[in-house]
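Predict structure. Chain length: 341.
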Amino acid sequence: MGYVLSSDGFGQVIDRLLETYRVYAPVVKTGAGRFTDTDVVMYDEVHSAEEIELLKKSDYSFKEFLTPLSETLFFYTEEQVKEADLPDKPVLIFLRSCDMHAVKRLDQMYLANGKESDWFYARRRELVKFVLIGCGQSFDNCFCASMGSNETKDGYVFSVDVRDGKIYSDVKDDAFASVFAENAEREEQVVPLHVTENETRVHIPEKFPLSILKDPMWDEYTTRCIGCGRCNFVCPTCTCWTMEDVSYTDNGRVGERRRVASSCMVDGFSTVAGGAQYRKTQGERMRFKVMHKIYDFRKRFGYDMCVGCGRCDDVCPEYISYSNIIKKAAAIAEAGEEEKA
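Prediction complete.
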């Protein structure tokens, strides 16, 4: 069922939903960008419809509710261990199609990547329902159409499109139909907006030659990449983390264990006991990240990890283009196939 609402009507819908749900959505943070006179769009808990940014691309992804930057997993004493409490109020998260596809990747990694699912992720995931933000146009650096993440047909409870000052919603979950019906101007069949092409396009070959791991192309990023990890932190499918124990006592037997977001691109992440590092240079780390997202993950699960949101290109302080790296890797793979032929 579809509904058309005025801005006021949509605001009333959100007010009603806030009685039952916590709502997380893109929000414009004025003056919080990389420079003092620039804004940033990032996810935060909202308390009214006016706070929700529906037209601009978010600089950061939705993932911080499901995979917080720092999360206390449990507390421990000398005698017992207690899992950290989590508010049980259900959550609505507003996101675009590329991020909706990213949820599938996160679920795959945390819930279906071995014999046991990740209990801490699962308990957060059970609280969440998703709201799809339609894309009426492609944004800078997006290549979602190439990655097949430009359209979402299920997985959301309702959608939101801004068209000519009105809000158009496709309501999938009957539990939400009544609140929309009460505040809508009219019922109308609604198909969520989605882009069909992007200015940025990539093609990922089915296979890559083993020689690509030693190709000189990666050396460029040893000098260009500064290892800040921003590409990982804005990515909706990057999930690297490390563990930290925080001791409350001198003997270390009372404290808490935290899961803290980390990055395969930062120095020290791949360091093992004895100080050895598997990937010492930024070029090696870039190779690991890129090939994991466009080859290794697909080899294991049947589809690519990358969803083409382009946020890594948007945020890189050295203007490194991830989509261009894909194109370079594809050209090497295709050249190798031509030599075999």
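Summary: The mean pLDDT is 94.
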